Structures are given as C-alpha cells and as structure tokens.
Amino acid sequence: MADLTSNFVGIRSPNPFWLASAPPTDKEYNVRRAFEAGWGGVVWKTLGEDGPPVVNVNGPRYGAIWGADRRLLGLNNIELITDRPLEVNLREIKAVKRDYPDRAVVVSIMVPCEEAAWKAILPLVEETGADGIELNFGCPHGMSERGMGAAVGQVPEYIEMVARWCKQNTRMPVIVKLTPNITDVRKPARAAKAGGADAVSLINTISSITSVNLDTMSPEPSIDGKGSHGGYCGPAVKPIALNMVAEIARDPETADLPISGIGGVTTWRDAAEFLALGAGNVQVCTAAMTYGFKIVQEMISGLSQWMDEKGHATVADIVGRAVPNVTDWQYLNLNYVTKARINQDECIKCGRCYIACEDTSHQAITMSPDRLFEVQDDECVACNLCVEVCPVEGCITMEAMTPGTVDPRTGRVVQKDYANWTTHPNNPATVKAAE
Amino acid sequence: MANSQMTRGIAAGRLPAEVIAGNFSDLHPPLDPHEAAVAADRCYFCHDAPCMTACPTSIDIPLFIRQIQTGTPESAAKTILDQNILGGMCARVCPTETLCEEVCVREVAEGKPVLIGQLQRYATDTLMADGVHPFARAAPTGKRVAVVGAGPAGLACAHRLAMKGHDVVVYDARQKPGGLNEYGIASYKTVGGFAQAEVDWLLQIGGITMELGKALGDGLSLDGLRDGFDAVFLGIGLAGVNALRAEGEDREGVRDAVDFIAELRQSDDLTSLPVGRNVVVIGGGMTAVDAAVQSKLLGAQTVTIAYRRGQQQMAASVFEQDLAASRGVRILCNVMPVAVQDGEIELEYTAQEAGALKGTGERFRIVADQVFKAIGQRLDGAPDGLKIEAGKIAVSDDGKTSITGVWAGGDCASGGDDLTVTAVAEGRDAAEDIDRALRS
Asked: pLDDT category, A429, cuts 50, 70, 90?
C-alpha cells in the first residue's frame, strides 16, 4: 500500500492534497469540514493587516466557462482577501490547528510592501501554531490595484525583498505564491529563492474575462452593468500551470526549490502529473468549489492505486520523475516518425477525424461510402489532431515507425539514431563540420 | 352502476375520466430547456452524419442540435423546417428508432442515441410557440396548382409551391385538413390539437386556399383539375382497407382499426368512446399497435394483437412492440383469423410452406368482444388513366405520374415507406419539380 504522507518543507500532512488559499479556507467551519473529509492540509485564505477588513463586492463574484453537459471548465473570481477581522481568523486558525495537529495549516498573508507591516503580522500568525506561511504575490484583481498581490509578484526585486523580510522575522517556513501573469515564471521563482524562501507555490489565478453578457454588454460577473477582470482557475488552466511548474523544476537555478503545484487539479491524475513535473504537493480549489470536499477521497484512492500499480512507495518517489523529459523543442528527436492508426473495432464512424484532417490539416484520412475511415500514410504527418478530436479514447493512436522502414510520406528511410534541429541541415545556425 | 374494465361487451367509460386523461397524455413529454441542453450536448456533430442520411427529408441534424446547444432553438427550427415543413409532427410521430436514432453513432457506441426526435420537437415547439413563420413567399408567378389531399404530402407540397410564389388550392375529402396527422395517429403521440395548430401555422405562408369536404369522384375530377390549374398534385393516401377474408367479418363488433383511431382522435370525451372488454387486433403494423394500445388505455381488460407472420416480420418497430407490451398488450404471432363468432375469434396457427404462408390446421379460440382489422390500407379512388404499379400510383423520383402535368406523392404513390416523413419528402420534392416545370 502506497504511503501518501507528505513532508513539504518540513510541513507534514497525511496526504499531499491541500486546499489552496481561497473561499473554501476562509473560515473555521469550512476548514473543519475539509479536514473531516480527509484533506491533508489547507492554506488559510489570505489575511491582511490588522484594521478594518477589506470589503467585497455585494454582487456576483464568479464567472465561468463550461464544456458539454455544463461541466465547469474554468472559473474566475473577483473576490478579495478575507473580509473578516484579523483577530477572528487568527483565533479560528489556532482552534483548528489545535484540534487537527496532524494536518497542515499554512496561512496566506498579504500586507503592504513595507517591512513594518510584515513584522507586525508574522508574530500574530506564528502564535496560532500554524505550520507555515504563504506570501500571496499572486492575486491579479483588486488588491493589485493597491500595490499588493500580483503587483508585487510581477516585480522580482519586491519578491526577493519581502521573502527576505519574512525569513528574518519568523521561524515558519515561507512559501512564495507566484502569479502566472508574467512573461517568464523563472524570474520570480529565482527571486523567491534569492530571498531565502523555502518554496514557491504556483500558479495563482490568471487575469481573465470569462464572458460578456450580450444583452447588457457587461463583462461577467457583472456588478451593476460593469465588470472587472478576475482571476481564472479550474481545469482550463492546468496546462498553463503544468508548464510553469516544469519551467521552474528544470531551471538549474531553482531545480532544488520545492514547489507546491496549483492550477486546475481536479482528479488524482492531475495531481500525479503535477508531482511528476516537480511539485512536492498540490493545492486544490476549483474542484472542491465545484463538487465539494468529498473529491479528496477519489484523489487519495486514485493516487494510491496508481502508485501501487507502478510500484511507487512514497510521494517523494514520484516527485520530479517527468522533469528530465521536459526539454526544448530544438532537442526533440526529428527521426522519430509516427503514423495515426485507427482501430476499426473501436471506431463509431462519427467522421470527426476525417473532417478535421480534410478541412484543416493534411488530407491524410479517407472516407469510404460505407464510412470506413483510413489513414493514408503517404500524407499523414502524425500531427495527432485526429487523436485529439476522436470521441472514443484510444480508438486512434500514434504508432512509431520501425527504423529501417520507409516513410511513405517523405520517401526516406526511418533512422534509428536520435537527431534534432541543432544538427539539422536546414538550420541556418548549424555549424557544418565539413566547413 | 358505472362501467368498468369487467363490463361485458363493448362499452364506454371503463376507466375514470382522470385515469383516461392520464393514459392519453403525451407519450414523450416535451423536453424542458435543461433537458434539451443535456440531450443536445451528447451530439458529436458527426461529419456527413448518418442520422442525416437516414432522414427521408435529409434534415441537417448535427447543425440543428448545435444550434440548440448554442441557445438558438429558433435557428434550429429553421434548419429543420427548411427540409421538412411538418418537422413538428415528424418530431412526434417519426419512428426515430428505425431512422435517425437507429444510426446515431452513440446508439452504435453506447446503445443510447442522441434524443434527436425530442430535440427536434424542442426546436420546432419553441419557434411555433413564438408564433413565428420563418418563410416568406416569392414574387407571385400567376401559376395555379391544385393539391388533392391535405395530408402530410399535400401540405408539404402546397407549402413549398406557395413559397415559390404559386397559388395553391388544397382539396380534402374530410372536414379538417391534416390527413393521417389529424385522423390516423395514436392520440398520445400528438396531444393538444397539435395537428390543426401545425396546419394553421403552415398556412401562414399565404397563397394556399383550403377546400374541405371535396374529393375526387365526388365533385372533383382529375380532368377538371387539369383544365382549371397549371399543375395537379395527388396526395390522396390509401383510402381503402384490406379485408380480413375470415368468416363473420361483417359481424357487429368487427371494424377497421383506422376508423376507430380516427374516431378516437376526433372525440372530445374519451370516456364516451366505447371499447370492447376483450379486444383482438388483426395485423402487425403501426396501425395495429396504435389501435391495440389505445384500446388498452381506454380500459379494455385484455387486448391481443394477432399477426400472421413471425415477430421479426412485424412492420411495427421494436419500440412500438415494446410500447404495446408495456401497456399490457399481448402479441400473438404466426396466427391468422379463421372466423369471428359471438364473443370469440377463432385463430389458426400459420407456417411457411414452400415460400407461402399457410394454416397448419391447428385452431384455437380466444375471447373477443371487439375485433379491429389493421391488415393494411390500399389505394382507393385513384383517377382513371394513371399508371398503377404494385397497387400504387406510379411516379418518377421527382413525383411525376404517367400523365403530364400530374404529380403524386405520399402513401398513394410508389416508392418509399408509408411514413409521414416520407410523404413530406415526396410532397416537397414534387413541388420543386412542379416549380421547375412551371418556370420552363
């Protein structure tokens, strides 16, 4: 039986599934329910400095996009940090941590970019017995207009500075939460490391407008006819998050920096992918907000089953396993030739592979009058579009050609040796050995 | 004492009014917007979709379902009605299980097709509820066309001709237009006076005059119509009913299923409609099932369908057979009627012998207060001079008969199944051909 216990920068939890700093972790009531449901930890919704709390809009806070059957694919929000008094949150954090000592309780913090503000709040959080802090440098909406959140996270020098202040003023591990609303996520990650942060967590939400109400011409969610960009999350952002996690994991400067993976984790499989790309644990929000806390049971059972099947004993055994396989395009093997293969027994004859290839790609699938769909190897460039549009998983696959055989499309013999763009004759930068 | 299911003989009011009302409610209640959204989301938007090919009117089904998905059921309805002006009725009565839904790739993959028929109804009902008629007439051509028969074929033909700018007069022997839509389909398939509402909606195109109570041979002649109009379309259906050829066929309590169905459709008080305590329906098609099921719903204690061939040969679809079984109708196969007696019917088992169906000699009797004949309709009253082929008016692919200037379609014409949707396709296609002829 796989061991799912997690030790992330010294913070222990019974499993690697934490709830991200967000509405589900704003109150003791919710967090207790989460722990009862089985979540390994929470990052408490972001605390601000003492004083009158922030206020939220009193109209809708969320917008969404959906797939078939109104399955929620992407959610955005314009909610700010906690709008409850600091003292109330601190008291509740302390009570919850006292009652659930085996669970991870990390507190997210966002205060103005002044050392005094951080110095003031850190002892208060430390006093709750919390396991660590997460610096919210990510929220793209509202708080960023006040010089906090993403406004800090978009300036690596600020990240480094604040991380250093925190490390100097608390014994707790410091996790820096990164915004994806930048061009190169490695820069803020390096800054966090330079400031002494114990880890980074990413991604925070992505600046977004989910939809426009075509009757009122207002973006959604609409507040009295106006909308503001919100922070986007949910299954739709997972690919963006995976890439950013991988970029940090494979950057030599940050390769040893622990990562808490966030962004569209919905199933055990999503979680395993984040772990494989270098995340030490994962944080979940939208999936819980969509389906409730019980989903963690599937995440636990699924990850456990897969680990058993693959012979992975511990979570640490998985972390980073896929990182060596993330490379630059220029190093991809150009001698690897595949062709699409349609399993006729699985085919339901919808014709989507055909029309996708015919209209938008390489005219490499033929259709007979009785709806037999066949790949023409002499046209197939192996783009994978047919695989992706087929409604039946596994019906169309990509099959590698055996070295030594001739690719009917190019007329060239498939080579067994690896060769990439850096040495390709068409590459203007290639230095020809003969010259 | 009120009647009950046990009342002997043929009697009305066997069930309480509220039970009968429930029994005759919509077989498939309309999808609400949420149900329609869920159903529409299952469509894969197939390329050159099999459902579309299977539809006799070639409705672009993936397109109209996508239009429902994207919140424009009115556009979906336009897509449907472009091909099939009676798309609302066809959504209710088409045997989708043997047409579009049978070949839906999700039927193939999962045994559960997209609910094409019900989605079609959702779209067409939405548009009709808005009172919108999305077609307009072309400039008047000054040409006049006579359409005989206001059934699906005639109505489809008339609408298309009117849209092309021709003036159309539609004649029908009955007092209401609609043909089998009005008189010949089980009540629970088209509730709420839909058939008439659809005709009213269709006539919004303009340019169509209805002449009811007029039939060929009864004030109308083909020669007269040819003289008075630029073209004639015959959509006269199958007015004759096949005989049982069994002893006692003329006894009281023996009647044509189509008459019973028509009477039921026209009744505004089903508790006053008499039905036998023990009903036997002879036949194996849709009409047999419609008569049998409705007898049961009216309160018959036992209803038996007696069909002379095997179940595989029944013209009623498996869905219809299952519907009958679920309502408590017993289906007896490989039996033929020999004689109708007082309160009984004598049946004989049949078997195939040297390619012919013959009685085995083994006979038995079952109780029968009422016997419905549903062994097929035949062409009756076709004008002289028309070439007849296998009992139907011979027509070309575009509906031309053997007489110049006369077209025909629907059940009375050769080719195609005897289905509402097929009749619509034939009426429409004949109209296109008439239009071409009138313009050349």
From this structure: confident
ipTM value for the complex: 0.88
Q: Could you tell me if B71 lies within 8 Å of chain A, comparing CB atoms?
A: no
Tell me, yes or no, if A139 is annotated catalytic.
yes
CATH for B243-376?
3.50.50.60
Any idea which fold B144-239+379-439 has?
Answer: FAD/NAD(P)-binding domain (3.50.50)
User: For chain A, which domains are there?
Assistant: 6-325 (3.20.20.70), 329-434 (3.30.70.20)
A280-284, B184-188, B388-392: least confidently modelled range: B184-188
pLDDT at A151 over 90: no
**Cβ atoms of residues A40 and A15 within 8 Å:** yes
Is residue A116 exposed (0-12), middle (13-18) or buried (19+ Cβ within 10 Å)?
A: exposed
Q: What percent of chain A has pLDDT over 90?
A: 94
Q: Does B46 touch chain A (CB under 8 A)?
A: yes
- Establish whether domains B33-129 and B144-239+379-439 are of one fold: no
- Summary mean pLDDT of chain A: 96
Q: Which residue has the higher pLDDT, B416 or B160?
A: B160
Rounded Cα distance between B40 and B383, Å, is 47
| Closest to B146 in 3D by CA, of B388, B386, B381, B406 | B406
User: In which band, very low, low, confident or very high, does the pLDDT at B1 lie, cut at 50, 70 and 90?
Assistant: low
Contacts with A, B 106-135, CB within 8 Å: 106, 108-109
CATH superfamily of B33-129: Alpha-helical ferredoxin (1.10.1060.10)
Tokens found for residue A355: 């029309």
Taking the C-alpha atoms of residue A26 and residue A92, their distance in angstroms, rounded to an integer, is 10
| Domain regions of chain B by residue span | 33-129, 144-239+379-439, 243-376
pLDDT tens profile B348-360: 999 998 889 999 9
Residue B46 CB partners (closer than 8 Å, separation 6+): A349, A350, A351, A352, B62, B105
> What pTM does this model have?
0.92
Top residue of B47, B48, B63, B72 to mutate, by most chain A CBs within 10 Å, is B47
